Amino acid sequence: MSLLWFLNPQQYLLQIFYLLIGCLILGIGVYMEMLADVVMLPGESFVRAVVFRWKTEFGLTKVCFDVSMTVLAALLSILFSGALLGVREGTIITAILVGFIARLIGRKLSFLPKMLFGVQLEPEAPSLSDLESTPVCIVVDRQYGSGGHDFAKYLAQKLSFAFYDEEIIQMAAGSSGYSEEYISLKEEKMKNSLFYDFVAQMYTNPSQTPAPEDSIFQTESKIIREAASKENCVIVGRCADVILKDHPKCLKMFLCAPIEARIKRVMKYEQMDEKTARHSILMTDRSRARYYNYYANRVWGLAPNYHLCIDTSTGAPHAEQMVLDMLEHITGYHPNPKEIPIP
Known about the structure:
Elements: H1 12-35, H2 42-54, H3 58-81, H4 89-108, H5 112-117, E1 137-142, H6 148-159, E2 162-164, H7 166-176, H8 180-186, H9 193-200, H10 212-230, E3 233-236, H11 240-243, E4 250-256, H12 259-270, H13 274-296, E5 308-311, H14 316-331
Helix pairs in contact: 1-4, 2-3, 3-4, 4-9, 7-10, 12-13
């Protein structure tokens, strides 16, 4: 207070302005507290303990905790002072914004722990030093309705590779503590990254108590790395192209198709009318793009991110031949494909 004696705003808008500056400073402080891995403040420690014990949503738990503390403070103020003192709109704004700011800063400066302390937040990939014995991996990202799942499964059967799509959900459920239904609802879906940060407000150490979506992503990333290190495989979606960016024998592709072709496919296989199919395609693609941008920090479907971008409406035989040729060129693997029906 002595250092900032000259700051005594009287106008309401000026008070709000300085409040927001204070939230920013406090958010930076909370992030630095977590970066240094020191003892946490009691409020965050209590919420983290609840999340860790009962697997609740951190954001909702934090909001409930902050609201209950605010209500309790108001009641005590009225009880002992006969008036409402110390609890106003600034208290609510601070409770909402500080966690959001700290989490946002943590994402933008995610490189700092490794730079300062040598801490690797993401699990390291298994050693692939022996290039000759390194398994071959094909990563397939896809627009909804392009037939990406079916084509990826066909490739796996054709090449006698292991196939990972829904299987990743089953494996993640076995190790994350979440049900298959819950993981299926959360993975590869994000309505808005800023809103997610706002709701999650997860600024504790992510390796200890991550938000559910973060926990699912970390678990699936570990499964993808392990799968790609032990056997030849085809993996669908889930930012696998970025997760396996250092894999020396990984072919990355993106499957797309014109919107009308995708609408027809979704109408046929999902039993939807044209309007519903179009809306479902647009919403799913938008959600996948946001998810990919959030966790991969790249633009979903951008050609430079992949070895191949294929329009599946040109026909599966075309796509298959391009994949086999590129697979041999990129990885040195000489495929001996089986003769099976094209889906």
